[in-house]
Amino acid sequence: MTKILITAATTATAIKIKKAFAGFELILADYGEVPQLQTENYSFLSLGNQNKESAAHILLTSCLDHNVDMILPLYRFEIEAVSKAVTLFTEYGIKVLLPRTDLLPQYDVQTDLKNWIILENGNILYQSFPEHIRNEEAANLKLNGAFYIEPQTEKLGLISI
User: Fold this and answer.
1) Are 56 and 94 in contact (CB under 8 A)?
2) Which of 5, 19, 22, 77 could, after both became Cys, cross-link 68 (CB 3.0–4.6 A)?
3) Is the pLDDT of residue 110 over 80?
4) Which CATH number covers residue 92?
């Protein structure tokens, strides 16, 4: 079973996003104290004290320690750090659910979770609304990550906290 680490575990955004990964084993990670809760489908993990300068290292170490297959960072500082270290994560067999570093600036950061999708290689893994859409931009660029999407225009915004 694929194991996914999602950060910002103590936020409503992470709790909402976790439902996109039914059938996966989830680790909800955050800095400082986190609930000591473990269910059949997910558990919580403390990443220790927040250190923005070593965020990528902390996340990679946590992924390796817990045999994580895929990571979805949600804090803005993590997104920037992990996007620069994608090659390192990939070398260890960890898939990063973020757009390529060169594409990050073109996506406004959104905190709205009214209409959102999870993409892996441009394919929609989950969408929070019933209408089926096929975002050509996402497919052509083989985008990864959690995005807000405007259903009428299909404009994407990267979800972050």
Assistant:
1) no
2) 5
3) no
4) 3.40.50.20
